[in-house]
# Entry
Amino acid sequence: MKPFTTLVGIAAPIDVPNVDTDQLAPARFLRKPREDGYQKFLFHDLRFNQDSSQKLDFILNQPSYAQAEIMVVNRNFGGGSSREQAVWCLVDYGVRCIIGSSFGDIFYNNAVNHGLLLIKESEQTCQALREQLHAQPGAQMKIDLESQHFTDVSGTTHDFEIEESRKKRLLLGLDEIGLTLQYTDQMSAFESTYRAERPWLFVSR
Amino acid sequence: MSKPTTLFQKIWNAHLIAQDSDGRSLLHVSRHLAHDGSWHAFRFLKARSLPVRHPDQLFATPDHGVSTLSHDFAMIKDPDQIRVVKALDENAQTHGFTLFGLNDERQGIIHVVGPEQGITQPGLLIVCGDSHTSTHGALGALSFGIGASEVCHVLATQAIWQRKPKTMRVTIEGELGPGVSAKDLILAIIAKIGANGATGHVIEYDGSTIRNMTMEERLTVCNMSIEAGAKAGLIAPDQTTFDYLKGKPYAPKDQDWQVALAHWKTLKTDEGAVFDHSVTIDASALPPMVTWGNSPEEAIAVTGHVPDPKLAGDLTREQSLQATLDYMGLSALQPITDAKIDLVFIGSCTNGRLEDLQAAAEIAKKGKAVVQAIVVPGSSLVKQQAEAQGLDKIFKAAGFEWRESGCSMCVGMNGDLAGEGVRTASTTNRNFRGRQGINSRTHLMSPAMAAAAALKGHIVDVRDLLKGESA
# Structure
């Protein structure tokens, strides 16, 4: 996993609320091998017509925003299906940070497993940031994870909160399974008690 | 005396292995459920050369990509789906977990199969790489959906890291009226609290309405908790739960049953326990509900009208509402019953159980489908039971198609899709754009409402048909 430290990149505003993971990654692409890349599936049915031509009104098809590495979104971004492919689509496209007021719980947990930083800000702040980005297409924002602040296109700096464990994993690009396996003794001790107390759960039929 | 605690807290405590310095909890996973879509996670595991830590705690069945025309493997035509359904078989062989394969009579949608087999039990912690894992909370199990990397983590460790969610109590009182179902109730709850109204929370449903519900109705309610953004939905186990589980293949037997039962009876929220949020719903006043938009929160009474974007308050919201109406082919303020239906789908982990099919068949009896109507049982056993009651004959006589079990049009991965512009009355859980086919239009509703729409060719208040009006 690629570590996340600082990022200076173009930011795109996504205005609509409730962008579900079906929009981010339509179901018919979900069984494609991970290693083949998911960038072309991101927002597929909003980005492309059925003849594969681009829908020109979609924000990522506007040249100023096409290289976006940051998105400022509306409430309940990434709700719905647990499909991690929504995150693969975003990171493979090049998006590394999303600022929004609320995210789907499962999407939020999936993001950190692929180095995608999600920043929670108030609805008012997000709306103001999106308005700035509409006014200055292609403008860049700056994210500094270590010091937990980002700079908007007007030069104003905003602090943000992030859980310590999430921050550490993003900064170092750490893999969770490796960390958890260090708890093997505790897991084994827990499991033997758990199994002894509930023998019926472990009978094969 | 110890501090009063919630049911959620009790289950959480019983699975807590360790905490890290950041306050996260490492929780033991009692039962891990898998399906054909778990393919990616098994590939991640293989890439790391890790074994499945506890194959006896893993149960799987193919559901997302299977054909509903026949369970002959050769009927799966999409190479991507062939690959993953086959891989599930191979992974079961390699790792030695329990698989209810395509031709096993226990096959079905994983969230129908778990409770049906008694694999889902009160007090367990259950995860699955599917958001509708919230379904299993109906039996008092803390259950939630996870992504592929987390599935790989659970395969390797039988544990998962979580930050403790908040709690929300949804109390529902009163008797549901005729023609009003568990589906209408959960749609009304989501409309009330919003699609992110329970984000970061575990919901516990309680109140007389829930207590009087059958297990299948409770499964429908918990299933759609995720559509309100909830981490999980929970219902404390009671006699209904115990009666439901007794005799199920994986339920405890004999002496074990007594031990389990004594434990299950302790699984309830203590008097005086504190929730972060509370919501109260009067079920007696509830009409049948139907969605008009592209989020499950966009639900109204079937007697209602499509909202007017001009009343949205701000321009961004007005534009987004208008875009939804354009996508849905609806106009502001039109009665929702004006919406003509092209296709009807009855099934899914939300509404594919026996009682759902019975409710739909009661309506189907009253006439003939005037549009294509597809019935997909939630599991192969549900199909068998429905056939034993002659429901298949009722549906076929009314011109409905009677299919094999699977996720089918709920997720549209097996080729069961609605065409461009096609308007579907659907008993599923998501009316997202394109969910049931590119540019297709979905209206969520109950099985009885969907069957009624099939007979009338437009959205209709099922209560009108129950009054004896001929179809």
